Amino acid sequence: MKLAVIPGDGIGSEVIDSALRVLRRTSRVIDSGISWDVFDWGAERWLTDGVGLPDGAPHLLRANYDAVLLGALGDPRIPDMAHGREILLGLRQGLDLCVNYRPVVLPGGTVHLYRENTQGLYAGVGGAIRRGGIAEVAIDECVYTRETVERFLRYSLSDLQRRGSRRVTLVHKSNAVPNTGSLWQDVFRRELREFPDLAGNEQYVDAFCYHLVRNPTQFDGVVTSNLFGDVVSDIGAALMGGLGLAASASISPDTGFALFEPVHGSAPDIAGLGIANPYAVLMCVVLLLRHCGFDIPADALEQSLSDAVRTEVTTPDLGGIGTTDQFTGEVLRQLDLK
Ligand code: NAI
Ligand code: MG
User: Fold this and answer.
1) Distances (CA, A) of 73 to 62, 78, 92, 239, 263
2) Is 323 helix (H, G, I), strand (E, B) or coil?
3) Which numeric CATH code is attached to 1-95+257-338?
4) Which of 59, 165, 206, 285 is the right S-S partner for 160, CB 3.0 to 4.6 Å?
5) How does residue 338 score in pLDDT terms, banded at 50, 70 and 90?
6) DSSP class of residue 198?
7) Is the ipTM of this complex over 0.90?
8) CA 139 distance to own-chain centroid
9) Domain with CATH 3.40.718.10 in the chain
């Protein structure tokens, strides 16, 4: 298996170091081994030669690698995040990564969240009417094509079926946002007919947030549009115990090609201190291994992570006294015990 690794900025490269230590160990138990190339796309390169995502990058990744592992992007010297948007949005759109899967792992079960990742309010359609350089009217349009909603829902529903899920909730706001809202409802109801084992229901996003916080594990599968998914999955991260724990996979429904990244950003407030929590990136490695068909090492790593998180060498965000290195060392120790 060959991976493209993009450490990115701030704690991105610190947690990726941890992931590479674990991948080196996991490589030994996989017949073909695991190799990778590291790409320096991020703030440093943007500031020195003005390159964010090099031309042809999506094709290069798709043609030469089995999957992408990304740390995080974001640098205080680039306050508008121009480089991050170019790289992240460029990869999402260029690789057609319209399904974003974010598991919310809780003691009572896992909530499987799927967010559409390329259209909606993030489609980049809009503009502003300015007077003397000051915006008086600003517009961001929510754009959805039936084709994208269909491809997104088909993939997400079949993924849920494969996981053995029995229930799926569509999160929407069709009372206030009727056009895209009813497009989503229509496609959801049609697609569900193909999945008789999945019971579907629909919830307004505001009510959903309320119920998610009150009793998260009443939900099993959740499918939603781009903005709602972005917001709701941060609630999921908080329910799990923090951003340092939340992992995500972005997948192309047509090719199955996928990019794995922690939900957190580059955390400039703790960058360089060596205390970033690598749990989220290591959960990304679990998702990556499983996606590529390596279930046994994925299960072993997931179990090692949950054992390591019960020791005192967890990082300070979880109330522990450990460093990134020490926590990674504990995960490797747990793996050796298996
Ligand atoms: P952030 O996720 O980087 O940090 C929020 C808070 O959580 C901070 O206090 C940070 O120390 C803590 N935190 C995050 N990850 C942690 C970890 N693994 N271990 C321990 N503590 C952790 O979000 P923030 O501060 O809003 O954004 C910082 C930069 O990251 C910005 O430039 C932002 O645009 C970018 N960003 C990038 C993302 C990406 O690459 N996909 C996602 C979110 C933000
Ligand atoms: Mg977000």
Assistant:
1) 21, 10, 14, 24, 11
2) coil
3) 3.40.718.10
4) 165
5) confident
6) P
7) yes
8) 27
9) 1-95+257-338, 98-246
**Tell me: the pLDDT tens digits for 276-328?**
999 999 999 999 999 999 999 999 999 999 999 999 999 999 999 999 999 99
The pairing of beta strand 247-251 with beta strand 199-204 = unpaired
For 98-246, CATH number out of 3.90.79.10, 3.40.640.10, 3.40.718.10, 3.40.630.30 equals 3.40.718.10
Decide whether any atom of ligand 1 lies within 6 Å of the 13 Cβ. no
pTM over 0.90: yes
**Closest residue by CA, ligand 1 atom 5:** 267
Q: Which atom of ligand 1 is nearest to the CA of 269?
A: 11
C-alpha 33/C-alpha 31 separation (Å) is 5
Do 173 and 179 form a contact (C-beta atoms < 8 A)?
no
Q: For atom 26 of ligand 1, which residue has the closest CA?
A: 265
Is the CB of 267 within 6 Å of ligand 1?
A: yes
Contacts of 186 (CB under 8 A, 6+ apart): none
Identify the CA nearest to 256 among candidates 296, 292, 298, 294.
292
Task: Count the neighbouring beta carbons within 10 Å of the beta carbon of residue 176.
Answer: 10
One-letter amino acid of 173: K
User: What ligand has the least distance to the C-alpha of 235?
Assistant: 2
Instruction: Identify the bridge partners of residue 128 per DSSP, sorted by sequence position.
Output: 138
Contact 313, 326 (CB under 8 A): yes
**Closest ligand 1 atom to 279 CA:** 18
Show the CA angle centred on residue 222, arms to residues 217 and 226, nearest 5°.
Answer: 135
Cβ–Cβ under 8 Å, residues 115 and 100: yes
